[in-house]
Design a protein that fits this description.
This protein is α/β, with parallel strands linked by helices. Helices cover 36% and strands 22% of the residues. It has a 7-stranded mixed beta sheet with strand order 8-7-16-17-18-15-19. It is globular and about 65 Å long. It starts with a strand and ends with a helix.
C-alpha cells in the first residue's frame, strides 16, 4: 500500500509515523522548508521561546504512549504546581480563578447573584436544539456573568475565538454531551468521571500540562527522525485527483511540476488549502472549506528583568474578558510554568494579540504590537521599563474556528471518506484544535486506514 500524507504538521507527521510503524510505504509532502506547522521553538540569550503551542494536556493514553515510543520521555516536563493558579481580569485587577468550593465562595471574580444562579443549573431543562452558540448555551445555563468572566476569556485563550460565534456541540462536544446525556453541566461533570476512566481519558480541567525541556518543537522533530527520508520539504501539493483505484498527486518543487500516484492519500493541511487541492473532488462543496474562519494571531514573547515586574507571577498567566476593553487576549507567565525558560534574574511572558476579538491588532507592525503589549502588561502586572528581548511571530491564518454550522463541515470529512475510497483526513480541523486532539485525530485516521488494508 502506498500512501501520500499531505502536510507535515503534528497530525501529518503522527499519521505517517503510525503507518510507517506498520510497514506502510508512506511519503510526506510539505510546502514549507520546515516541519511541525505552527510548532516552533527558538533559543536566544538564555531564553527558550515557543512561538506556537507552548504546552499540551495529557488527556489520553494514546498521547502518553506516543511520547514514550518516539523517545521523548526524558525530555518531558510537567508544569509547575504554582501554575495551577490561573488569573482572570475583572475591573482591571487579576483575580485567581477559584478551584475549590471555599475559593469560589470567597472570590470577587463573580458576584453573589452569579454564584447563586449556579445553584439553579442542575434543575434547568436541557437544550433541545441541534446547534447553538456557546454564548447562548452558557447564558441559558449559567448566566451572563459566567459567560463574560469565565467562558469569554477562556475561549479567547484557547480558540482566540468569540463565544457568540462558536458552536457549542462542535467546539466543545464534551461539555455539550455532559448536558445532553445528564441534563446538566454540574451533574454531568460528576457522573462523567466514570466514563472517562473507562476510556482512559482525563478531563481537560484535570489533565496534567506538559511540554519538553527544549520546547514543543522537539515533538515534531522526534517524529521526523523516526520518519527519515520519507519527508519531502519545499514540495507543494497542487492537486489531488481520483485516478483508477487511487489518486494522482500533482506536486510542485524547484525542479518543476510532477505527477505521482498513490493508492491512498491523507489530507492534513488547513481547510482553505484543502478547498484548492481537492477542488475536482469537492466541486460546489469547496466553498464550505474555503470559508472556515482562521483569524490572525500574533504571539509576542518578551524577556524582562525580574525587578521590572511588580506582580508575583505566581500562576499560569492571565486571560482578559472582552468587557475589559484591553488590546491583548491574555499573557502566559512562561518562566513560571516550565524550567529553563529564562536566565537568572529574568522572567518571560508570552502574550497573544488579535484573534476574532481584535484581528487587526495581529497585523500591525512590530513596534505597534510591542507598544500595545507593554501598555497592557504595565497596567495589569506592573511591567516597567523595556524588555531585554522581544520576539514576535504573526500567524496570518491561525486557529480554525468551529463556528455555528461547523458540524456540517465535520460531517463532510466523513462523507468524503465514504465517497472516495482511500481518501482520509487528519488535523485540527476535525476533532479539536489542541496538540493532543491532533494526535488523536492522526491515531484514529491511521487505525481506520489500517483496518481497510
Amino acid at each position: 500500500m502506498t500512501v501520500a500524507v499531505i502536510g507535515a504538521g503534528i497530525s501529518g507527521l503522527t499519521t505517517a509515523y503510525y503507518l510507517k510503524q506498520q510497514g506502510v510505504d508512506v511519503q510526506v509532502f510539505e510546502k514549507n522548508n520546515y516541519i511541525g506547522g505552527s510548532v516552533i521553538t527558538e533559543k536566544k540569550d538564555g531564553f527558550l521561546i515557543d512561538l506556537g503551542p507552548n504546552s499540551t494536556l495529557e488527556t489520553s493514553q494514546v498521547l502518553r504512549q506516543l511520547i514514550d515510543q518516539i523517545g521523548l520521555q526524558s525530555q518531558k516536563v510537567y508544569a509547575s504546581d504554582v501554575s495551577n493558579k490561573r488569573y482572570v481580569v475583572r475591573d482591571g485587577l487579576l483575580h485567581a480563578l477559584p478551584l475549590s468550593p471555599p475559593a469560589f465562595i470567597k472570590t470577587k471574580l463573580f458576584s453573589w447573584k452569579a454564584k447563586l444562579q449556579l445553584l439553579k443549573e442542575p434543575f434547568l431543562p436541557k437544550v433541545e436544539v441541534d446547534d447553538i452558540s456557546l454564548a447562548d448555551y452558557v447564558r441559558y445555563r449559567l448566566g451572563d456573568e459566567f459567560l463574560d468572566y469565565a467562558i469569554n476569556p477562556f475561549v479567547a485563550g484557547v480558540y482566540a475565538g468569540d463565544p457568540e460565534q462558536l458552536s457549542a456541540p462542535a467546539a466543545f462536544p464534551k461539555l455539550y454531551n455532559l448536558e445532553q446525556n445528564y441534563g446538566s453541566f454540574i451533574k454531568g461533570a460528576i457522573k462523567g468521571k466514570r466514563e472517562r476512566k473507562k476510556r482512559q481519558e482525563v478531563a481537560k480541567d484535570r489533565a496534567k500540562m506538559f511540554s519538553f525541556l527544549d520546547g514543543m518543537q522537539v515533538f515534531p522533530q522526534a517524529l521526523a527522525r523516526q520518519l527519515g527520508e520519507v519527508i519531502h520539504l519545499n514540495c507543494e501539493v497542487r492537486e489531488v485527483i481520483p485516478h483508477g483505484k487511487g489518486f494522482k498527486v500533482v506536486l510542485e518543487q524547484d525542479s518543476g511540476e510532477q505527477e505521482c500516484f498513490f493508492e491512498r492519500v491523507v489530507i492534513s493541511v488547513p481547510t482553505y488549502v484543502q478547498a484548492k487541492i481537492l477542488n475536482s473532488i469537492l466541486k460546489e462543496r469547496a466553498a464550505l472549506l474555503a470559508d472556515v474562519l482562521h483569524p490572525p494571531i500574533a504571539v509576542v514573547f518578551m524577556g524582562c528583568k525580574r525587578d521590572d515586574v511588580a506582580h508575583a507571577l505566581d500562576g499560569f498567566g492571565f486571560l482578559l474578558p472582552a468587557k475589559e476593553k484591553k488590546q491583548i487576549l491574555g499573557s502566559i507567565f512562561s518562566s513560571t510554568i516550565f524550567p529553563q525558560r529564562a536566565p537568572q534574574g529574568k522572567v518571560a511572558f508570552t502574550t497573544f494579540v488579535g484573534g476574532m476579538r481584535n484581528p487587526d491588532n495581529a497585523l500591525k507592525d512590530d513596534e505597534e504590537i510591542k507598544e500595545l503589549v507593554l501598555k497592557d502588561l504595565n497596567d495589569l502586572v506592573g511591567l516597567h521599563g523595556q524588555p531585554v528581548l522581544t520576539r514576535i511571530r504573526r500567524w496570518p491564518r491561525a486557529i480554525p474556528q468551529y463556528t455555528l454550522g461547523y458540524k456540517k463541515i465535520q460531517a463532510l470529512f466523513d462523507e468524503l471518506e465514504q465517497e472516495f475510497s482511500g481518501l482520509f483526513f487528519a488535523g485540527n480541523f476535525r476533532r479539536g484544535i489542541s496538540v493532543g486532539d491532533s494526535v488523536l485525530s492522526a491515531f484514529e485516521t491511521s487505525e481506520k486506514m489500517l483496518k481497510e488494508k
